[in-house]
Amino acid sequence: MGNTKKIFLEGFWKDNPIFRQILGICSALAVTNLMLNSLVMGIGLIFVTSFSSLTVSLIRQYTPKHIRMMVQTLIISSYVIIVDIVLKAYYPSMSEALGPYVGLIITNCIIMGRCEAFAQNNKPLVSFLDGIASGIGYSFILLVIAFFRELMGFGTLFGYPLLGSWWTKWTLMIMPPGAFFMLAIVIWVARNLSPDDEKQKEGATS
Amino acid sequence: MKKGSLYSVFFMMIVTAIFTLALSALNQSTIAAVQGNQIIKHQKKLLYAFNIPFDDTMKTDEINALYDTHIKESKQGSMLIYEGHINNQLIGYATEMEGPGLWGNIQGIVAVNKDLNNILGIDFLAHSETPGLGGRIDENWFKEQFRNIELNNSSPYVLYRPSPNGTVDAIAGATLTSKAVLNIVNDSLIEFLELKKGGK
Asked: What is the pLDDT confidence band of residue A205, given thresholds at 50, 70 and 90?
């Protein structure tokens, strides 16, 4: 299905939520000091975005237009609570590490952005895939940022020591300012890798 | 199809009912596991305060067993007191402490040795301090400072450096949280020592 490929390409790169749409920045800055946190956050977001999009799309023909945002918020928050409960019950250490950020998935603009921009006007299955694609795009950037932050800040990857004791840990990297530097660098590099898109996008309605 | 406002109200009610029902069902089915996790967390904090080594990868049963062999709960007056044992020798007592922090209440545990003149260790159960500033009370370097420190002869029992009898360092940039923690520790020590010494 050529459509599927297009959806994934857009979510992952061309229309990547983070460096293209600059959405979901808050959590991208917050949880990226460890690879593991980023991975779990990414999985949580993929789950919530895809299923929210699916549900919104399923009931889109019955949803009165003027209350659609209420319905979307309800759906999104329900899925986030599901993620929160599951983490608390079966993965308490991760629930602790992510702390308030799980609840804050609700406020991640990517989810509502996809519901409004895509799921509202498309069939359920495509919307579901679109949610997954956007979630993967987001997770990918988070993992790239976390890779550098954890490696430089702790000398480890996923908790495994990779760099020896000779490595001077960059404490800055695991603190909030490190996230700003890394995010800016990632956006800069990613935009330089696809400079042509900039021109095509001009004049496009966002 | 014309959708009137009554339809919107009904639609919203039905959708809300469905999702609330699903969430309640999920919550009910996992409540036991969540509570179990909280008990384990509490037990780990007590083990830490008594400086009884445990491994974070330990299973629930192992933590439970470790806790049962080392810590006994007893009540004195209205206070819940935890007695710490190593090799069947009483090493000290622990009690829960609580008091106002900067943003909300800080709850924790303080353990003292059996002669009531040293702190064995402290740990925090819950707090809502600023992450990265006051939230650093959770970090090991701060908590480890309270390991095996001698109490002053009279209240206040613990002071920050550079006061003459100071034994611990405050957190830079988190003055209010640091002060709050010290107050909570001292207040609970006053209460606890009074109880212990009065009871003897």
From this structure: very low
Alpha-carbon span A4 to A18, nearest angstrom: 21
Find, in chain B, the residue whose alpha carbon is nearest to that of A87. Answer: B34
Per-residue pLDDT of A150-184, as tens digits, reads: 898 888 888 788 887 788 878 788 788 889 999 99
CB contact under 8 A, A82 and B23: yes
Q: Does B148 touch chain A (CB under 8 A)?
A: no
What ipTM score was computed for the predicted complex, to two decimals?
Answer: 0.73
Beta strands in B40-193 (DSSP E): 71-76, 79-86, 89-100, 105-113, 118-126, 149-150
Q: What is the DSSP letter of A7?
A: H
Query: How many angstroms separate the Cα of B34 from the Cα of each of A78, A80, B31, B123, B199?
Result: 18, 17, 5, 21, 37
Token pair belonging to A169: 């840990």
Decide: B47 and B121 in contact? Cβ < 8 Å: no
The range of the structural domain enclosing residue A66 comes to 2-195
Q: How many domains does chain A have?
A: 1
Closest alpha carbon to A18 in A152, A135, A193: A135
> Which whole-number Å values give the CA distances from B158 to B66, B76, B109, B168, in the listed order?
30, 24, 15, 8
Read off the tokens for B97. 């402490």
d(CA B200, CA B198): 6
Q: Is residue A206 part of a domain?
A: no
Separation CA A60–CA B23 (nearest Å): 22
